[in-house]
Automatic annotation (TrEMBL):
<comment type="subunit">
    <text>Monomer. Associates with 30S ribosomal subunit, binds 16S rRNA.</text>
</comment>
<feature type="domain" description="EngC GTPase">
    <location>
        <begin position="83"/>
        <end position="232"/>
    </location>
</feature>
<feature type="binding site">
    <location>
        <begin position="122"/>
        <end position="125"/>
    </location>
    <ligand>
        <name>GTP</name>
    </ligand>
</feature>
<feature type="domain" description="CP-type G">
    <location>
        <begin position="74"/>
        <end position="234"/>
    </location>
</feature>
<comment type="function">
    <text>One of several proteins that assist in the late maturation steps of the functional core of the 30S ribosomal subunit. Helps release RbfA from mature subunits. May play a role in the assembly of ribosomal proteins into the subunit. Circularly permuted GTPase that catalyzes slow GTP hydrolysis, GTPase activity is stimulated by the 30S ribosomal subunit.</text>
</comment>
<feature type="binding site">
    <location>
        <position position="258"/>
    </location>
    <ligand>
        <name>Zn(2+)</name>
    </ligand>
</feature>
<dbReference type="GO" id="GO:0042274">
    <property type="term" value="P:ribosomal small subunit biogenesis"/>
</dbReference>
<keyword id="KW-0862">Zinc</keyword>
<feature type="binding site">
    <location>
        <begin position="176"/>
        <end position="184"/>
    </location>
    <ligand>
        <name>GTP</name>
    </ligand>
</feature>
<keyword id="KW-0342">GTP-binding</keyword>
<keyword id="KW-0694">RNA-binding</keyword>
<dbReference type="GO" id="GO:0003924">
    <property type="term" value="F:GTPase activity"/>
</dbReference>
<dbReference type="GO" id="GO:0005525">
    <property type="term" value="F:GTP binding"/>
</dbReference>
<dbReference type="InterPro" id="IPR012340">
    <property type="entry name" value="NA-bd_OB-fold"/>
</dbReference>
<dbReference type="Pfam" id="PF03193">
    <property type="entry name" value="RsgA_GTPase"/>
</dbReference>
<dbReference type="GO" id="GO:0046872">
    <property type="term" value="F:metal ion binding"/>
</dbReference>
<protein>
    <recommendedName>
        <fullName>Small ribosomal subunit biogenesis GTPase RsgA</fullName>
        <ecNumber>3.6.1.-</ecNumber>
    </recommendedName>
</protein>
């Protein structure tokens, strides 16, 4: 029988995986691996059990249980693209304009998987636009999230010192719209990463994201960054309605005052959450996201 060994999936291109062997004395830093069966379902961040077939090649025999994961999905199919992260770092930028729906989804995902979420506003050198984005950050700070402000390009050292202490020994998944500077941050924090970055105007003209694949980069002082392509959406179909409601922490002071104890805060009479939205005690956009997540969940489940 061929000996098995453990490894960490650092990149996934269809059925082709790049796996870092757990044993550091391994002759190759990375093994090219394929799944044993027809289905290819490993994700970046997965701990896997492999059998070597050649010096730099192997077959994935088993995926070890995951701690946290995110799927890129729609109603019909979903695929896990990153797993086993300790925290989410959502990168938004003065330009392109802040996508709060995406940010809100990331925060719900973090809550559902009980991982920390950190928000970073990049490109503060673009001052006028940064002012607009900054005004919205106060909302998230009031909800208890840490929101840092950096300019990875014009003040890299300040960005590094703000981030390094928060990323040390953690596996951090970078999320955020295309062009906000995720790969720029990877290059700043993970020496030798050489992640591709691109002017947004060029990227938008081609209609493609600069980062095409999710990839894990080890950090010098322990921990790792997982860079992902900027994208519009990811699935939360595995999250229950109850968890959705809990993830909106600003609803919590009101839920006990709803007339019905099983109130979903959508159309029920005497709903204290909706009353709070009307009274502007709850942000309208955040409530709209909650209602949308519930609608999406219903579409998938029935
Ligand atoms: N003005 C300014 N531009 C920045 C800053 N940080 C990054 N950029 C630029 O923003 C553009 C996009 O950066 P990327 O790092 O490729 O963005 P990304 O989030 O990885 O994009 P995708 O891979 O498409 O998801 C590049 O031209 C960067 O040079 C900054 O602090 N200020
Ligand atoms: Mg990128
Ligand atoms: Zn209610």
């Amino acid at each position: 029988m061929t000996a098995r060994e453990d490894g960490l999936v650092v990149a996934a291109h269809g059925r082709h995986y790049l796996v870092a062997p757990a044993r550091s004395e391994s002759a190759c830093p990375f093994l090219h691996c394929f799944p044993r069966g027809k289905k290819s379902e490993a994700a970046v961040g997965d701990c896997v059990s492999i059998e070597r077939r050649a010096r730099d090649q192997g077959v994935i025999i088993k995926i070890l249980p995951r701690r946290a994961w995110l799927c890129r999905s729609d109603r019909f199919k979903s695929r896990i693209f990153a797993s086993n992260f300790d925290q989410l770092l959502f990168v938004l930028a003065a330009v392109p304009r802040v996508s709060e729906m995406l940010l809100g989804r990331a925060l719900v995902a973090a809550h559902a998987h009980r991982v920390r979420a950190l928000i970073v506003l990049n490109k503060t050198d673009l001052e006028a636009a940064a002012r607009v984005a900054r005004a919205r950050l106060d909302l998230y700070r009031s909800l208890g999230y840490t929101a840092l402000e950096i300019s990875a390009k014009t003040q890299p050292e300040a960005a590094r010192s703000q981030l390094e202490i928060r990323l040390k020994h953690q596996i951090t998944l970078l999320l955020g719209p295309s062009g906000t500077g995720k790969s720029t941050l990877v290059n700043l924090l993970a020496p030798g990463a050489q992640a591709k970055t691109q002017e947004i105007s060029t990227a938008l003209r081609t209609g493609k994201h600069t980062t095409a694949f999710t990839r894990l980069y080890p950090l010098k002082n322990g921990g790792a960054l997982i860079d992902s392509p900027g994208f519009q959406n990811f699935g939360l179909h595995h999250v229950s309605e109850k968890v959705f409601a809990q993830a909106f922490t600003e609803f919590q002071p009101f839920v006990s005052q709803c007339r019905f104890s099983d109130c979903r805060h959508l159309h029920e009479p005497e709903c204290a959450v909706r009353t709070a939205v009307v009274a502007r005690k709850i942000d309208t956009q955040r409530y709209a996201l909650y209602a949308q997540l519930l609608r999406e969940a219903q579409l998938t489940r029935f």
